[in-house]
């Protein structure tokens, strides 16, 4: 099962990533000023996953990626894939697991394993 992971960018904005059950990042969101905005966006995606669309792209170097669209707005961008088949598997992973994925919040910067 996949997981949504909330963390912070270098500019202190919040972001979420959808990580596959194997630990690979599939999607990365845009930045959010407040953590609750990030959390709300995750819940909106989970609730409206069946209405989301995926725009597929190819870079000049032949890598494939997609953008997750919700109500004609780009919500997140995928990582780069070597082939279209691998990109399609990433989309399937989101379609299958995102609606029931748990949310982990690592934005506090607390070290999990203290000395």
General form: globular
Q: How many strands appear in the DSSP assignment?
A: 7
Q: Give the strand content.
A: 25-35%
Mean pLDDT score: 90
InterPro entries: DUF1508, UPF0339_domain, YegP-like_sf
Domain DUF1508: 60-105
Organism: Flavobacterium silvisoli
Protein name: DUF1508 domain-containing protein
Report on the architecture of this protein.
It contains two helices and seven strands. With 115 residues, the protein is of the alpha+beta class. The protein has a single domain, classed as Roll (PH-domain like), CATH 2.30.29. The longest helix has 14 residues. It comes from Flavobacterium silvisoli. Pfam families: DUF1508. This is DUF1508 domain-containing protein. InterPro entries: DUF1508, UPF0339_domain, YegP-like_sf.
Which SSEs are present, and which pair or pack?
Layout: E1 3-8, E2 14-19, E3 25-29, H1 35-47, E4 53-58, E5 64-70, E6 73-78, H2 84-97, E7 102-105
Parallel strand pairs: 1-7
Antiparallel strand pairs: 1-2, 2-3, 3-6, 4-5, 5-6
Domain DUF1508: 60-105
InterPro entries: DUF1508, UPF0339_domain, YegP-like_sf
Protein name: DUF1508 domain-containing protein
